[in-house]
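Document type: protein sequence-to-structure record

Subject area: structural biology

Format: plain text, a pair of labelled lines:
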Amino acid sequence: MDVSPKKGRFGWLRRIEELDPVRDCHTIHRITAGYEFPWDYQRALEFALFRTYCVPSISELLARTGEFEKRPQKRYDDTALLMSEMLEHGYDSERGRESLRTVNRMHAQYDISNDDMLYVLTTFIYEPIEWIDTYGWRRLHPKERLATFHFYSEVGKRMGIKHIPESYTEFAQFKLDYEERTFRFSEDNRRIGTYTLDLYCSWYPAALTPAVQQGVFALLDDRMAGAFGFPAGSPTVERVAVRALRARARVERFLPKRTQSRATADPSNKTYPGYPVGYSPRDLGTHRSCPVAAT
């Protein structure tokens, strides 16, 4: 499949318009996440994973493994890279199949409900879409939305997840209904949420920890804050954060289009420096790894 962009800042968008969101779902999604919005996509998935910890059955399992308490950075990096491998190379590529085997091997060690697996899958679809539409340098094309849905539906099938809805809107409604039904406070939510918040703060100088904490609180919706037992975010901090994100988007709108995918190219990766050079998906995770976080 030719993935060369057309000329100009909107060259990738014009290329997407020529593709089919079902047949070419991987190609389209790789353009969206790897070329057009790599920074936004990474930030959105950070909050997507954070969101799953509001479900007590998920956070209880994560707390029981002890991985988020002992090795939060490695758990985060394993999650990001396993999904990025499928994004960059495709779920049916050699590296994509190896990534899926790694994920499935770790999941098989635990009794995880199909609905929890379905819910985690929805966050990989809809959270980045909402983030990019709100903070990205352009809104997503309808084909990008559908391609994301079809891409992760195929990933879900290969993970053995059952009863994946067949339409974009039906799966989105499942997500909303599941959150309404399951989001509630628990001590495990608070514990896993705090470990994750501490991890985010560790990426910045210690002097910025209060600012990072307040920024995260400001970007959480009320339901998430309540499920974690976190304080409500400051409206002033929220306004500042939103303005900063939108200012960044305005600047990026005038930058040249990317000609290399950044799906797996993260020179700042703390656990696997220089990844993917010298590594393969089977090297990620541990024999008894954190299940949902590797989803």
Summary: The chain has 14 helices and no strands.
